[in-house]
Amino acid sequence: VSTENELQTALYNHQFVLFYQPQVNACNGTLIGVEALIRWKHPKRGIVPPSGFISVAEETGMIREIGWWVLKEACQRMKSWQDQGAPRVPVSVNLSFNQFHDDSLVKRVCHALEVSGLCPEYLELEITESTMAEDLERSIKILNEIRALGVGVSLDDFGTGYSSLSYLKSLPINQLKIDRSFVLDIARSNRDQAIVTAIVSMAEQLWIDVIVEGIETKEQLLAIESCRCRAIQGYYYSRPLAEEDFSENYLA
Ligand code: G
Ligand code: G
Ligand code: MN
Ligand code: NA
C-alpha cells in the first residue's frame, strides 16, 4: 500500500503517466474524444492502476497536486497531438472530489489552457454525481464558471448516484456518461435496454450528449446501438493506450 510520502516522491520523480482511451462513434469508428487515465510507473511494482493509489491520494489530499499535474499534462499532450495532425477532439480529464471543491479550480483550469495553448473546447472535465451532491447550489455555480470558459463538463458514472434526475435537471453539463453497470447485462436484459433508451431520449431533449462506457463485446455494442446510443468507450474498441501507442494509431 502506498503512502503520502511515496506519492510525493512519485510526483517529484515523474513516475505518473497518462494513458489515453479512445471514445468513438459506433456507426463508423471515428474518434470523437479521448479520456486521460492516470497510471503510476512504479520502479519496483511496475504499472500501478488508480485503484492502487487514488484512495490514499484522496485521503491525504495528495490527489489535488496529482490532479493538477494530470490536468496540465493532458492539455499539453492534446495540444501537441493536434499540432502533429491528430483529429481535433476533446481530451477528458477526471476531477476528484477534492479538486472540484478547491477554490483554485477555475484558476487551475485557465492556467492549464494558457500554458498548453489548447483551445477550451478541446478540454472536458469528468465529474461524478457524488462529487457534486453535497452542495448542489455551489456545484452549479462552479460548473457555470467552467462552462463560461468554453470547457465541457461530463457527468461521470451516470446512474449510480441517488438522485440522477435532479442533477440532470439543474446541472449545466453538456455530456453524461452512462455507467458501465448498465452495459454489463445489456445484451440480455430488457430492463437495462429500457433504462438506457430512456436516458438517451431524455438527454436528447435536454441537448445533452450521451456516451456509454464499458463496452467489451460485439453483443453489448449491438444492444447499445439499438438504444440509439452512438458514442462509446470500452475495451471492445480499445483499452486505454500508452502515449506512444496512441500516437502510433492516431497521428498517421
Ligand atoms: O483507468 P482505470 O479504469 O483503472 O481507472 C479507475 C478509476 O480511477 C476510474 O474511476 C477513474 O475515474 C479514476 N481515475 C483515473 N485517472 C484519474 C485521474 O487522473 N484523476 C482522478 N481523480 N481519478 C482518475
Ligand atoms: O470512472 P471512470 O469512468 O473514470 O472509469 C474509467 C475506467 O474504466 C478506467 O479505469 C478504464 O480503464 C475502465 N474501462 C474502460 N473501458 C472499460 C471496459 O470496457 N471494461 C471495463 N471493465 N473497464 C473499462
Ligand atoms: Mn471517467
Ligand atoms: Na465512469
UniProtKB/TrEMBL annotation:
Q: Where is the signal peptide?
A: none
Q: Where is the EAL domain?
A: 1-252
> What is this protein's name?
Diguanylate cyclase (GGDEF) domain-containing protein
What high-level taxonomic lineage is stated for the organism? Answer: Bacteria, Bacillati, Bacillota, Bacilli, Bacillales
Q: Covered residues of the complete protein?
A: 367 to 618 of 618
